[in-house]
Design brief:
The chain has a single domain (2-248), classed as NAD(P)-binding Rossmann-like Domain (Rossmann fold, 3-Layer(aba) Sandwich), CATH 3.40.50.720. The chain is 43% helix and 15% strand. It contains 8 helices and 7 strands, in the order E-H-E-H-E-H-E-H-E-H-E-H-H-H-E. A 7-stranded parallel beta sheet has the order 3-2-1-4-5-6-7, with helices on both faces.
C-alpha cells in the first residue's frame, strides 16, 4: 500500500508553501519522497519551512514570488526548472482575507484579495500547467478552496466569492487539462487556525463554528496532508479529477 502514496522522484511546487496550511501540506508531500519548491512572497518564512523539511531528511528550496504579479511567476518557474529540471505537482495555497463589512469594501480591497485568491491562481495555472504540458509530464494540480466557497460565511464576503471562483476554475481546468494527463482537484478545508482567519475568531464566532461542526473542534494543519498526498499521487488517484474534497470535520454536511 505504501507504493500507492510514494512521491519519490516527483517535484512539487507549493505556492503559498510558507503559510500554515501550505507548509504542512508541503511537509506531508516531502515525507512521501517529493522534492519541494517552497514559493512565497516572504522569503524568510519560505526558508524556515525549507529548514524544517531538511531537518526531517527531505529536499527543498525556497523561492520568492508574488502570485499577483505575472512577471514574478514567470521568473520563478524558470528558477524552479533550473533547480529541478521540471515539476509534477502544483499546490496552489495562497490566501488573503478581510472582515470588512460589505458596504465598506473598497475597490482596492476587492482587487487585492481577488488578485491573490483568484486571479493569482489562474495565472499560476496558466504558467505552470503550460510548462508541464510542454515537458510532456503527467501531473496533479491541487487548489486550496474553503468551506465558504459553497456556503458563504458572514464577515468574509470577498474571500467567499473568490473561493467560489476557485471551485469553478478547478472543474473547468480539470476538463481543459485532462487530455494532457494533468489532473486538477481542490481541497475544501474546514476551520483551521491559519493566519487569515485568526483575526475574526471571536468567542461568539468560535461557538457558532463549533455548533456547525459535528466533530466539535478545529482542524489540525497536518490533517490536510492525507488528502493532498492522495491527490498528488498518480498511483493513488489516477482517475480523480475535477473533484472538491472536503476536509472539514463535517461542517459541509450540516444544515439545521
Amino acid at each position: 500500500m505504501s507504493n500507492l502514496f510514494d512521491l519519490t522522484g516527483k517535484t512539487a511546487v507549493a505556492i503559498g508553501g510558507n503559510s500554515v496550511l501550505g507548509s504542512s501540506i508541503a511537509k506531508g508531500m516531502s515525507a512521501q519522497g517529493a522534492k519541494i519548491a517552497i514559493v512565497g512572497r516572504n522569503l524568510e518564512k519560505a526558508n524556515q519551512v525549507v529548514t524544517e523539511i531538511e531537518e526531517d531528511g527531505g529536499t527543498a528550496k525556497a523561492f520568492q514570488a508574488d502570485v499577483s504579479n505575472r512577471e514574478s511567476l514567470e521568473n520563478v518557474v524558470k528558477e524552479i526548472e533550473q533547480w529541478s529540471g521540471g515539476f509534477d505537482i502544483l499546490l496552489n495555497a495562497p490566501g488573503k482575507n478581510s472582515a470588512t463589512p460589505f458596504f465598506e469594501i473598497s475597490d482596492e480591497e476587492w482587487d487585492d484579495i481577488m488578485d491573490v485568491n483568484l486571479k493569482g491562481m489562474m495565472v499560476t495555472c496558466q504558467i505552470f500547467a503550460k510548462k508541464m504540458i510542454d515537458q510532456g509530464r503527467k501531473g496533479s494540480i491541487i487548489n486550496i478552496s474553503s468551506v465558504s466557497s459553497t456556503t458563504p460565511l458572514s464577515k468574509v464576503f470577498t474571500y467567499s466569492v473568490s473561493k467560489a471562483g476557485v471551485n469553478s476554475m478547478t472543474q473547468f481546468l480539470a476538463r481543459e487539462f485532462a487530455p494532457h494527463g494533468i489532473r486538477v482537484n481542490a481541497i475544501i478545508p474546514g476551520f483551521f487556525p491559519a493566519e487569515q482567519n485568526r483575526k475574526i475568531l471571536s468567542e461568539e464566532r468560535v461557538e457558532s463554528i463549533m455548533n456547525h461542526t459535528p466533530m466539535k473542534r478545529f482542524g489540525n494543519p497536518d490533517e490536510l496532508q492525507g488528502a493532498a498526498v492522495w491527490l498528488a499521487s498518480e498511483n493513488a488517484s489516477s482517475f480523480v479529477t475535477g473533484t472538491l474534497i472536503r476536509v472539514d470535520g463535517g461542517f459541509g454536511s450540516m444544515t439545521i
